[in-house]
Amino acid sequence: MVRQRGFVEEKMIKKMDAVGSCQELDVKAAVMKRVRAIHEQQNRIDGERTNIVIELKPFPEPEDPIMQKQKEMPQHPSRFRKRVLTGVSAAVLLGIIGLGAFQLSADGDLSEQGSQVTIDISKPQGGNITLVNSGGKAVVKTVHNNTPDPTTSPAIEKYQSLSMTYKEQVLARLNTGEMAAYYVKAAELNKLELGLGYGNQLQFAFISPVYSKYQDFVKELKTVGDFWPGLPSSLADGYEFEQGTFNAAPLYKSLDTEYEEILEQFQKKATTDKTGQNLFMEKIAANSIDNAEVTYHNGDQRITLSLRQSVFKGYTMQVSILEGQTAEKWSVTGTGKEAIFIAAGTGKGKNAWSSQNRLYWYDEATQMVLSLSDKQENKLTREQWQKIATSFIH
Question: Which of 47, 90, 157, 388 is 20 to 30 A from 139, alpha carbon to alpha carbon?
């Protein structure tokens, strides 16, 4: 009976040894005594029976473990090391395989995300599209404008021609990157200003610098006006930055106190002048950017975009959809951002100026409404615009 019990217990102990349960855990004193007794019995060549007088406790249930963390080396170090080496090697191998699979999976996801960033396109009922911020407040909204103001007339053309004559005189006195405010006292020009509703006003001139290095361009954009901090250095399909330029923003009568101060100074000089001078100018610092233009190239292929930004001040910006134009809401997957894409119209003649594509979206981090447009003479395709959107909107 004792031998039968010893046989059963021996099988259980060997089973534990086979699955590695004894590699890292120690057995209570009673069990270890039983193990030694069994091995002593096996070593007897004459098969003499050994009376085992040690009573073993029955093995407890799994939820009541009898094993504790090992603090001493086991009695059979060679077997232990072999098992541990095998176990550690397997663990390391599994770890390497697992890590490799994780990295492959992660890289695969990133690659897949980069290659499969898509645009979900929708056309809301009613035709009007609204972009909202995280608080649900409308930031940008489209409005239909089928009767745009005429962009030209004989009076406007005459005014523009005279204005350009004086502006060229100012530009001739400026160096690259310099800006000037000027005032013209000329009967014909002043009469046209009043007739067109412009009023006597300040004019501004700026010679735009051209940057061929991306880092220099983005640094100047930040220095002058904190303009477009997220400008990408490259676009999809291998298009790389080629050059960039910007136009300094003029002073605005309704926003800048300097406007009225400079205008009053010029008007006083014009009133007291006895020399017949009709052009008064003063160089001023460029403190903000009105718009920028960036060109990307891929070999001899080029994409040129105009960039604008506007601070969201709590009121909704309205963008016009003119006759012949269509508008869509674009959702860029993986970004949580939406945009309004207004496709170029087919207008000709006085409406030719509307023949350009425009893209608007809101950047929550900077609280800026950003917009892109292409050139009338070099309009981009819809497919190009979708790739541009995935490059610019993050």
Answer: 388
